[in-house]
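[job 0412] stage=fold_complex status=start
inputs:
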Amino acid sequence: MSDIILGISAFYHDSAAAVISDGEIIAAAHEERFTRKKHDSGFPHNAAKYVLEEAGVSPERIKLVSFYDKPYIKFERLLETYHAFAPKGLKSFSSAIPVWIKEKLFMKKMLAEELERLGVGHVPVQFPEHHLSHAASAFYPSPFAESAILTIDGVGEWATATIGYGEGKNIKILKELDFPHSLGLLYSAFTYYCGFKVNSGEYKLMGLAPYGHPNSQKVEEYKQKIVDQLVDIREDGSILLNMDYFNFATGLTMTNDPQWEKLFGIKRREMESQLTQDYMDMSLAIQQITEDIVIGMARTAKNLTGSEYLVLAGGVALNCVANGKLLRTGLFSDIWIQPAAGDAGGALGAALASWHISLGRERKVNTDPDNMQGSLLGPSYSDNDIERVIRKYQGKAEHFSDFDALTKKTAALLAEGNVVGWFQGRMEYGPRALGNRSILGDPRNAEMQKKLNLKIKYREGFRPFAPSVLEEDISEFFDLDRPSPYMLLVAQVNDSRLNPLPENYDSMPMMDRLYHLRSDVPSITHIDFSARIQSVRKETNPRYWQIINEFKKLTGYGVVVNTSFNVRGEPIVCTPDDAYRCFMRTEMDYLVIGDFFFAKSDQPAIDLKEKFDGD
Amino acid sequence: MDFLKDLWGFLNKRKKFWLLPIIIVLLLFGVLIVLTSGTAIAPFIYTIF
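[job 0412] stage=fold_complex status=done
writing structure:
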């Protein structure tokens, strides 16, 4: 009988559950997708129930449960931090401590109660360290037999970044950077100062950075101020933050605003207010510094381990621009990034850490491509489930028994400039939609970015879109010599595809630059001619590969625009019901769920009053 | 009891015994808050703060 381990991440943000059977990854899912509450932090009851169902095991079969961090050490960090900063931080102390005294200190009991609700009996619960969970999530599913490991995030217990070495079933942590000195929190501080939400707006800051004027005096000035005053960057890539400028250790905000205002000469941007060039330059400055720090840490990892390979996890590993630059340094022959690099991925990492480290079980390496199964580890739905949704909303759908005919029709509609919701098979694990819960468009269409941002996603007009490209066609479009299956590498669009630029391009206003026709695939070419690439392999996701291939047959372009199937502030859709409602709320033209085809013009009007908070 | 055992194990392993008085005081306050919420003992807590 196989040994089942349930991994859990919960109680901070991005709760998730994962199940492994004899070390093989069976299923993993974010709780937010089920509860429809973005970054849901509650116990992942729905996700855990689902992963166990997917594994086909009853809860009594679980051998052990692995939680993704050590709560007592987190509490220790909290107390020591308040002690070190006292008398500052009283307000934050009085809001944080009651939660610990009432709940989090009794995490084991809380977990036992939640597990009992799930039907799990008395099983051992293990608590691997937060960064060990990240390291395990990066190393064990990777295609490398041995590799250096780099984990970087906001903070776990004490660690904010670690360098380790993985070989076979073992992981050894070699170096650690501790709170409050954190690259993740430094990036979040700038996210906050530029008027975006901490914990979700970091991606926007990364997307905003290319609007900064490269090599301009302003950007250089910001960079100089950052390294002179905010952060001391050491030779080995470790950093020391000047805590006079930060408020996150003991306050309820990220930055010490008056100090920042004095230093940078601009006020903290109010959320949703006008984005001026200053904030774009600021975001470029911190992005470039982040890249330097990541590369510095990776260089130390190389020196310490001597490995040819590197694996990455932790929230900062979602900074795909930094990942792309790191790859291009040539420090490592290859790098692999856990697609669920944020805290949700800790659920899988914790389970794998328990299996290989605590139980000492051997590891089976899959070198081509890896053990993540395309990160398609969530629930799938049957024709019956889809038909139920059609009946519920009295919708009109055409069923295709021939998938070739369905993809031909859909590809033709895409080529005509329509936006199509594409829902197939198992849901993605990790923050990116990889072609099973995606909205697709034609990358050649100059209006597509505007249409998707403003009429479909209802999000900021400046935000870029990513391409999904047939794996075999990557180098035809991008300056990248290897697959990027999880949309975690950024590379330049090939020079041959770029259009000549006006001389004053860099100084043109933001929106003029944005709508300038930069290449023959303008809607996936970011303002600096980069693209956040997802390569699609036929064997990993045959249905997604087929729709892109049909599009290629029609247009000569084996690439489509891929954005997550949701609107701003909404978790990515999970069920056909979520997908249909999202389809009806937006100006999406067509929807494909499994073998069913929906045209917006055929659907009856329905009254949907769902509201999602901004992200 | 499990909680106390785990707490002691944690302090012992991390050699952080100096945290013990802080934790005891916090826990006492915690107990007080739980016991006094909405009861006649409530005013007592105000005098402490």
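[job 0412] summary: Chain A has a mean pLDDT of 95.
[job 0412] exit 0
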